[in-house]
Amino acid sequence: MAKSWRILAASILLALCCAGCGKSASGDAPSAESVAEAVSRPFDVVADIKMGGIEAQADLNRTEDGVCTFVFQKPSALEGMTITLDADTIGLSYLGLSVEADSEKVLSSNVTKAIVASINAAAQPNGVSVAVDGSAILVSGTTDSGDFTLRLDQKNQSMLTLSIPNLDLECHFSS
Fold first, then answer.
1. 37, 48, 35: which is closest to 150 by C-alpha?
2. Contact 69/84 with Cβ under 8 angstroms?
3. The domain 29-174: what is its CATH number?
4. Neighbours of 127 (CB within 10 A)
5. Which of 2, 74, 94, 162 measures 20 to 30 Å from 28, CA to CA?
6. How far apart are CA 107 and CA 145, in angstroms?
């Protein structure tokens, strides 16, 4: 009888120890709602943008009211150019000149508009899929510019990369 109890106790102990051996809660995909909440928060990142053979770098920030602003650092010909996007308008400021346009009338392949549209789509829990790939959360969806995949750090849900294959666009984000 004592041997049976030891076997039972060992089995329970083994089961408890192995409970953590499978997929952990951190390996499970978060809900689309929690990802949308994380992506909707204001942020300030450096965006290294590659589209085809063109490379650029911009400071990208999003304010609480959903306005995104790109301030270009590279290439040197674009240094200081500021593009501001909200739900209705796109503003461009460069070398003291400023213009605003209706966002619906600007080409959907515009690189900044495509990046913001993808981030905004990820900020909506409907119409995106969420998965886990190693230490990253993958958010996939579609915008007017085509399919996109946004990779987030699984630990703090900060943006890592954005890929829009239809535009040959890769964007890497850093703090």
1. 35
2. yes
3. 2.50.20.10
4. 11
5. 162
6. 9
